[in-house]
Design brief:
Family: Belongs to the bacterial sugar transferase family.
Largest sheet: 7 strands, mixed
Structural class: alpha/beta
Strand content: 5-15%
Subcellular location: Membrane
Shape: flat
Helix content: 40-55%
Number of strands: 11
Radius of gyration: 27 Å
Strand order of the largest sheet: 3-2-1-4-5-7-6
Organism: Wandonia haliotis
Main location: membrane
Membrane topology: Multi-pass membrane protein
Number of helices: 15
Length: 464
């Protein structure tokens, strides 16, 4: 049960630890610092309930609940120390600085007491829980479904090395795919799932969590295409060491328990920025949705009176990790716009209604997508989501496009700001370059810059 929902157990443990720590600190503060009688008044109970929520939010922001079962003890120790120090300083300035004191030494005792009590109450249960996860993985009671790519002697060697380790790295091999499709020695040890061209089907059907690529040097030219395909799925990608010379700047060493592998780093921005980005998305979208209610009413009336059909237009798009979702927009076209199949719009598209043309120019048709952001389907800033019909065409020309599905798609994007709407697949490829550039430089600062540019486009009505 614990290993099925590790993040939930960590959150519950942290909440109870934070509540205990605050109660202990409250007692310490009353008795040792204020030298007053301890009593459980409403302030005590309110703090014991609300303060732990602050700690949970802080832990989430620094990435404590990301891949909990893969955490190791040193990392959890350093994260706990950093979070406790940051949170103690924050609570001191927010709640304790205005206390009536006789000496500044009371301030030092307060912050040191808060830090020490919270750290001890938090690290002990965390260490026990993390040790339990680590032990379950090392003893092969818990593993991550792993697919091996390659059938050469090198693939056999890395498989045997990982299986022979006295302490497992967590790899539970389910099978392998090969580049040449011929019989290999590896078939005697693992199920053969076919050619590497079938890898997407294998990942979906076998629910693969990790992929290890073991190719001969003669096959290295195919590595870029394989990684591009894998980038569209929520899997960890690891390479054997001699591939380092062809992957620059996107791998990190992963030497655990004697097995040397290079892990392709799929994180485009630090997790704390990802967490803040998600918080900003929700808060700003809620504010925008509430403030724009009068505009929604006006636009709804305009859409209804412009042509027959529904107010909103729902269309399936591909989101993060290739998961489809329904994007919500104000309808800007006549209801039979795609009776002949999927079509991209153009500047003089006769399918667009007169009101719809104005709305597209001002980007007003995108406003309902704040609902998608609140639901978690989209972000305020990110690569524009496309339909699977067009993704299939784009990937044939440029497999790198799949990297765009590693993050939440956005209402606006760098490609949308610089290029605008695409009218064909070639223009999609041109816009893709800007979105790939955004991925390589993702930051909160860049997101705010893109949002400002988007606002200027809407105000100046320069949308394409």
């Amino acid at each position: 049960m614990i290993t099925r929902y590790p993040a939930l157990f960590m959150v519950l443990t942290d909440y109870c630890s934070a509540a205990l720590a605050w109660a202990a600190f409250y007692y310490f503060r009353k008795i040792q610092i204020e030298q007053a009688e301890f009593s459980t008044n409403p302030t005590f109970w309110l703090g014991s309930i609300v303060i732990p929520l602050f700690w949970i939010l802080l832990y989430y922001i620094i990435g404590t609940y990301q891949n909990v079962i893969r955490q190791h003890r040193f990392k959890i120790l350093s994260q706990t120390f950093t979070a406790t120090l940051t949170g103690s300083i924050g609570l001191f300035f927010a709640l304790l600085l205005d206390d009536d004191i006789y000496s500044y030494q009371f301030y030092y005792k307060s912050i040191l007491g808060l830090f020490a009590i919270h750290f001890i109450c938090t690290i002990i249960p965390r260490y026990i829980l993390t040790s339990y996860f680590v032990r379950r993985i090392q003893t092969r009671k818990v593993g991550f479904k792993t697919l091996l790519i390659g059938g050469s002697e090198k693939a056999v060697q890395i498989y045997e090395e990982l299986e022979a380790l006295p302490k497992s790295m967590g790899n539970s091999f389910v099978g392998f795919v090969n580049l040449n499709g011929i019989d290999t020695v590896l078939e005697e040890k693992l199920p053969y799932f076919g050619h590497v061209k079938q890898i997407e089907q294998v990942i979906r059907e076998q629910e693969i969590e990790e992929v290890i690529i073991a190719l001969d040097r003669s096959e290295h030219e195919k590595l870029k295409g394989i990684i591009s395909i894998l980038s569209g799925y929520p899997v960890r990608i690891k390479l054997i060491p001699d591939m380092y010379d062809i992957i620059s700047g996107s791998v990190r060493m992963n030497n655990i328990f004697g097995a040397l592998l290079l892990e392709v780093n799929s994180e485009f921005m630090p997790f704390w920025q990802q967490a803040l980005k998600r918080i900003f998305d929700i808060v700003l979208s809620l504010i925008a949705f509430i403030l724009l209610i009068p505009l929604y009413i006006v636009l709804s009336i305009a859409v209804l009176t412009s042509s027959k059909g529904p107010i909103f237009f729902l269309q399936e798009r591909v989101g993060k990790d290739g998961i489809p979702f329904k994007i919500i927009k104000f309808r800007t076209m006549y209801t039979d716009a795609e009776s002949k199949g999927p079509q991209l719009s153009s500047s003089n598209d006769p399918r667009i209604t007169p009101v719809g043309r104005i709305m597209r120019k001002l980007r007003l048709d995108e406003f309902p997508q704040f609902i998608n952001v609140i639901k978690g389907d989209m972000s305020l800033v990110g690569p524009r989501p496309e339909r699977q019909f067009y993704i299939d065409q784009i990937v044939q020309k440029e497999p790198q496009f799949m990297q765009l599905t590693k993050v939440r798609p956005g209402i606006t994007s760098w490609g949308q700001v610089k290029y605008g709407y695409a009218e064909n697949v070639d223009q999609m490829l041109q816009r893709m370059k800007y979105d790939l550039l955004y991925l390589k430089n993702m930051s909160l600062a860049l997101d705010f810059k893109i949002m400002l540019y988007t606002i200027l486009i809407v105000v100046k009505a320069k949308g394409k």
